[in-house]
Amino acid sequence: MIRSVVRGTGSALPRRIMKNADFEGMVETSDEWIAQRTGIRQRYIAADDETTASLGEAAARAALKNAGLTPDDIDLIVLATSTPNNTFPATAVEIQQRLGMRHGFAFDMQAVCSGFVYAMTTADLYIRGGAARRVLVIGSETFSRLLDWTDRSTCVLFGDGAGALVLEAGEGQGTIADRGVLASSLRSDGSHREKLYVDGGPSTTGTVGHLRMEGREVFKHAVGMITDVIEATFTQAGITADDLDWFVPHQANKRIIDASAKKLGIADEKVVVTVDLHGNTSAASVPLALSIAVADGRIKPGDLVLLEAMGGGFTWGAVLIRW
Ligand code: UT7
Prior knowledge:
With 323 residues, the protein is an alpha/beta fold. It is built from nine helices and 13 strands. It has helices at 31-38, 52-67, 91-98, 115-128, 152-155, 215-237, 254-264, 275-278, 285-295, and strands at residues 2-12, 16-19, 42-45, 76-80, 105-109, 134-142, 160-171, 180-188, 196-198, 211-213, 246-249, 304-311, 315-322. Strands 1-7-6-4-5 form a five-stranded mixed beta sheet, with helices on both faces. Strands 8-13-12-11 form a four-stranded mixed beta sheet, with helices on both faces. Strands 2-3 form a two-stranded antiparallel sheet. Strand 12 and strand 13 (315-322) form a beta hairpin. It is globular and about 55 Å long. The protein binds oxa(dethia)-CoA (UT7). Oxa(dethia)-CoA binds next to helix 1, helix 5, helix 6 and strand 12. Oxa(dethia)-CoA (UT7) binds at residues 29, 33-34, 37-38, 113, 152-153, 156, 196, 215-216, 218-219, 222, 252-253, 256, 280, 310-311.
């Protein structure tokens, strides 16, 4: 059977680092509050010339280099983002053009912080359905453009960045020993809209709007939703938490990550945490964490890796991959 095998990973971050202490003159907060409540120590903020398209392109080029491939080898680009360069065309198409690709097809996926998990699942279905052989899956965001910089309850949490990976069709035996995407589970529930949304858009206000979040409410739902969807993925694959080599969760809050790992019985040393380095980068957070853990040698071919994300909508999901 066809499996979607990871061939390479890459990431890109803006030039400017903003430390927690840099907020101290802007809003009533402290490095201590941010670090204790979230685990975040710094985030990257895009300059005017750094956009979702330019960061996504840089991450894509890094993933292609890591895979030993060129844009000519790619059939499809799926970009997970909630901060496109323009309302349309899709930023994925702009990245396609920036990569010099005149063949294949490209589109954006919008599932906020779960975007990358949705994009991976979609790319896997295109590959297993035979509609694409090699797919660039990118998560790229410039959430700094959506932030209300006077709202301390949100502006300290988010940052900008991009991560990408190349998925390629490979042969599998249909067992969990196969390399590639082994199982995935997606969910959404629009009744939670008001807990995390942007108060603008082309069809309502005609403006871009600002991110609004009831953080405590999101927190309350996060662990239960994350563990439900992961348990569904475990059931699909016929595995338990003990079989995992790495857990790469959405990097929003270290306390949510710790509580989810504990509830699932995943040992601390198997959890990849990078939220301290780049804050919550929404759809870019999982591929950023992945590419950091691949680059530093933690994730190796053959490892069983679980991805998870949860965000606005609410949307949530998990993907299990044999690296
Ligand atoms: O990507 C997926 C979506 N996002 C998330 O996963 C975020 C989920 N939520 C969270 O991570 C946490 O709820 C937060 C980090 C947002 C907040 O942590 P919390 O422990 O839930 O704090 P809280 O909202 O209960 O607020 C505690 C206090 C409040 O003051 P009072 O009402 O107790 O006087 C807030 O006003 O902390 C205050 N506060 C701050 N204080 C200093 C809120 N933001 C800040 C701040 N600095 N930046």
